[in-house]
Design brief:
By secondary structure, this protein is an alpha+beta fold. Helix content is 55%, strand content 28%.
Length: 88
């Protein structure tokens, strides 16, 4: 029997997997010596939106978003998705 999961819980677990994977990738990158293997772990894709500034005379908003995914963060997303599938 398949349980329904809240989309919020699924999104939260996948984001948590990405964050933990990114942290692990950065730590592994600090430990490894310079070389190709280190570059695989620390180099990633960076997506950016903004910054967008909205000036409303009395106050100003500046909004931006940045996302950096490395190899280990993608692996963390995959592992968290697998665990989410089999977790009861």
């Amino acid at each position: 029997m398949m349980r329904k999961r809240s989309i919020f819980i699924v999104f939260l677990i996948l984001i948590l997997g990405a964050v933990l994977g990114s942290v692990m990738g950065e730590v592994i990158g600090l430990v490894l010596p310079e070389g190709v293997v280190k570059q695989v772990f620390i180099k990633g894709l960076k997506f950016e939106i903004g910054p967008i500034t909205v000036d409303l005379v009395m106050f100003t908003f500046t909004i931006g978003f940045s996302l950096k995914l490395n190899f280990i963060s993608v692996l963390g997303i995959g592992i968290s998705a697998y665990l989410l599938k089999w977790y009861r």
